[in-house]
Amino acid sequence: MSNIVIISGSPNATSRLNGMIDYVREQLDKLGHSTSTITVVTLPADDLIHSRFGSAAIVEANRLVEEAAGVIIASPVYKASYTGVLKTYLDLLPQKGLEGKVIAPLFIGGTLAHLLSIDYSLKPVLSSMGARHFVRGVYATDSQIGRSQDGHNRTIFELNEEIADRLQSTVEELIAELRLRSQQ
């Protein structure tokens, strides 16, 4: 089974994006794929801001990406693009660090106005880093994912049927592409 890394560029621990990430991770786990997650906001801020390529945390995060066959890049949309914290981490990946990887983008925004942010802001940067194969991305709006608290003050997410179906299709496409590549 394939090794897949999820890179979360959300600066907010209760972001609805986490509902999308959790759903995708659960589907991949059910199918026997190994997943790991890089939550960029938990990496040392000084390492990110000062571009400390050799820091232990950055080296470990980059190792996860290097060893992955598939990379899921997830971010909320701010000002028509992915988050700055995600960009600071992408800048610390090797120049061709995404070469040979199958990429699945997951974005969430307040409205459909930023629907094309995956194509116009994320893909050009990832392509410059060697990414050549993208599966269908998913852009969701906040209204498509419910957020509440359980009795233990944990955040619970509820995806509407359309988003769940689209995420499921992306997972299936990602797995199919990874399977094809492993047979080559």
Could you characterize the architecture of this molecule?
It is a single chain. By secondary structure, the chain is an alpha/beta fold. Helix content is 40%, strand content 23%. It has 6 helices and 8 strands, in the order βαβααβαβαββββα. Strands 1, 2, 3, 4, 5 and 6 form a 6-stranded parallel β-sheet that branches. A two-stranded antiparallel ribbon has the order 7-8. Helix 4 links the parallel strand 3 and strand 4. Helix 1 (17-30) packs across helix 6 (161-183). The two termini are 15 Å apart. 38% of the residues are buried.
List keywords for this structure.
8 strands; 184 residues; 6-stranded parallel beta sheet; globular; two-stranded antiparallel sheet; 6 helices; alpha/beta
Summarize the structure.
40% of the residues lie in helices and 23% in strands. The protein has six helices and eight strands. α1 packs across α6 (161-183).
